[in-house]
Hints:
Helix 4 (130-141) packs across helix 5 and helix 4 crosses helix 9. This protein is an alpha/beta fold. A hairpin with a 2-residue loop joins strand 33 (483-488) and strand 34. Residues 65-83 have low confidence and may be disordered. The strands form ten sheets. It has an eight-stranded parallel beta sheet with strand order 1-15-12-9-2-3-4-5, sandwiched between helices. Strands 17-16-22-27-32-33-34-35 form an eight-stranded mixed beta sheet. The radius of gyration is 23 Å and the shape is globular. It is built from twelve helices and 35 strands.
Amino acid sequence: MARFITAKEAAxxxxxxxxxxxxxxxxxxxxxxxxxxxxxxxxxxGHPCGLNxxxxxxxxxxxxxxxxxxxxxxxxxxxxxxxxxxxxxxRLGEAGPGLVKKWTSAHIGSAFTLCDQAxxxxxxxxxxPQGVIINLWREIGAGRPGLLTKxxxxxxxxxxxxxxxxxxxxxxxxxxxxxxxxxxxxxxxxFKVDVAILRGTIADxxxxxxxxxxxxxxxxFAVANATKNSGGIVIVQVEYLAKKETLPAKDIKIPGxxxxxxxxxxxxxxxxxxxxxxxxxxxxxxxxxxxxAIEPLPFDExxxxxxxxxxxxxxxxxxxxxxxxxADIAKVVNEEGLIDQVTMSTESGMVGGVPSALPSFGSAYNxxxxxxxxxxxxxxxxxxxxxxxLGIGEIxxxxxxxxxxxxxxxxxxxxxxxxxxxxxKVIFAGTLVGKAKVKVGDGKLEIxxxxxxxxxxxxxxxITFSGRYAPADQxxxxxxxxxxxxxxxxxxxxxxxxxxxxxxxxxxxxxxxRPAVSPDLKTMDPALFEEHWGxxxxxxx
Length: 541
């Protein structure tokens, strides 16, 4: 039976050098109070130290929010806002280097202090695909040796490229190339887990954990099972306590038999549902929010890009939307009144409804179903999606896309590699040039001031999507406000151009290479560049 302890007592239970597993997305599932206690203990005593932190999804805070304190969304250059960008995994770096020695995650960009230490070579940093890490927990818990998959081949995760290492001091080999029945695969070995630090909403007196107010049913069970079957301890932070045998059995997501210690948080600010919302009942299924209450996107080039991406949808599609601009496609489809014609999803396990963009990415308004990330990545890996839309970081002439490391900025791939590898239709969305000033309206695009950040470059800094490894039958599009490209025979090919701009000056002249140009080059639909569109139904058939 679980013991009920304080966060300070929990921090003392973590041995130096322990491998620590965590679960969640954003702030959902993140045990903030325990993390702060670990930080404080390290400051005061130097322990725990030298931890090997393992996480699947982004666990941090970009500096947004709308509850408790009336703060705005402005952020410091290169980091969070003063008040609230320090929540999440970044807590573990606030006391300086030493608490974390090794850090493996799919997405690291929002844990600012740990990223600073990785850039300074003060901790070893590794990034692996999100679905790989999340389902590797399951393999460890089941006593299997690891995960065999094609996910990661040809990307920076491939050991023949970088092996997932994000900085010079990272030396471990976390992935191997193997041949199985005449085909090439990557093998991700399992590992022993010493401590799981998790979060739910409610614990009963027997330590059974409910996720009642959580927007994401995270991989907490898989992490807890992997830890217990490794001989480790499981610590869970909750907001509420309940009498034993009063929680419905079907609501229990981590059974008490797997839980050693429970910490009831003293401060509700340490139990946020998502980084932008303390609790939004439409995320966790308590209510269904009127779709008219979801604000449409402002009319600008971002909306044009999302509209053009939405034109690729077909009635009945199951589509995945990635973080950033792609998540806003949901608002376009909702504004057009056609959200019930397709099923939107995110890798966190949201199915249906209207996926939320940042600061609450991973949650969804009015989801039809909420499944675990383990189940969602099984669906994705098996080819169950019809289409995905993901972001653009850097694109080169071979169609490679880098979203994981931009110069000294470390981000990681999140679920990008898993999703882009296994989906038959992939759309990458973003502006052609960063920080450009443009005007949209009257059926055309006008460049007012050219940007300073070239996104289409001769060679990407890191390969997150490999154009060379893209299957021949996979359709890959690159949608920008100025032009649309397609991967044809592993070569980037220009197929559409926006009305009102000059091909040479505004498109080709802003690229670090000259792409192939289709002999059937078309003009993007001028209606995309009108304030009121209303044309999605023409293509959604």
